[in-house]
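Bit of a strange request maybe. I'm writing a small parser for structure token strings and I need a real example to test against, not something I typed by hand. Could someone generate the tokens for this chain?
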Amino acid sequence: GLQPVREPNPAMVKHAFKCSATIMACALFCIAINWSMGIGCVETVMLVVQGTFGGTLLIGGLRMAGVVIGYTLAILLVIFLIPTVTTLPGFWMVCGGTLFLTSWGVAGPLRSSVPCLQAMIVVDFALLQVTQPDISLLPAMNFALAVSMGVLVTVAVYWLLWPVKAGKVVRPTLSFMLERVAAGLHRAASGSLSAQAVNVMQSTVEEELAKCVAAHTHAQFERHESTQRHELALRAIVVVEQACHRVLVTLASHVSARAPAPEIVQALEGAATRFARASALVAGKPWSGGREGESVATEAPAWIVEVTHASALLERLPGVLAELDTHPEGESVQLGIA
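Reply from user aminoacidic:
Good idea to test on real output. This should exercise your parser:
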């Protein structure tokens, strides 16, 4: 049958336009100066772009660090080491040692894997030239310049054109997570929540949590935040994550298509109200809903007690957010430089 037409996402449209504009600018520059060996800047753009300015600045900075490390290694190898190697096994030992060191870094976290991978590519460009009659660092230099240009143009475009600050993404993401769990609890109270729906909800919440944590990390590259403000924001993320995780895990193991008993409905609706009220609080919206129900009865099933206790974790949020609002935001960072 016919599929409903989805409304366009303005944020994604802007992101696509910025990415396309950056690629076009780099490609036109290479064509204008007849720089055929600089087309690598277009590939760099596609590897650097992120949804926020802080994320783009982080990946771009790591790529630049990898270029500097890789070109420095290329100069040392080609000028000082390769001329002393006269046998093929010796050449393979040089290549193998270099690749082992960079591969060891690639296997690490993001802040080591990205620059090490970039350094490996630059060194490979240099080592491939030793098979030519004349050893030259020109291809490696052109590639390093192309990557540097791609990074600089990308960061400039994402800074000047509709900048999306990572610090502004955390609260809406947390609010969306709480809203999704509240909707699931309402469906559980009406007996219309299926196991498949719970699995989809868990996947959605996990994706949003990953985006929230990444945005919280990237925000450090956009403005100077105090240690207290950073820790308070992280504490709010932990509270929301614990409450959502405990509720979804409990619902996944006790979901039922039958209409629950009245006392269970009351407990689920009360928990849903807590999540919905917390969602409005995090988003900075006024709460116009009702109050949560009374405390759960002592003879209630164990999973209902667990849901109630998990939703009670959200009572910590108002204090954390109030303390967070007392700390002013730091000054903006100009292209990551204080």
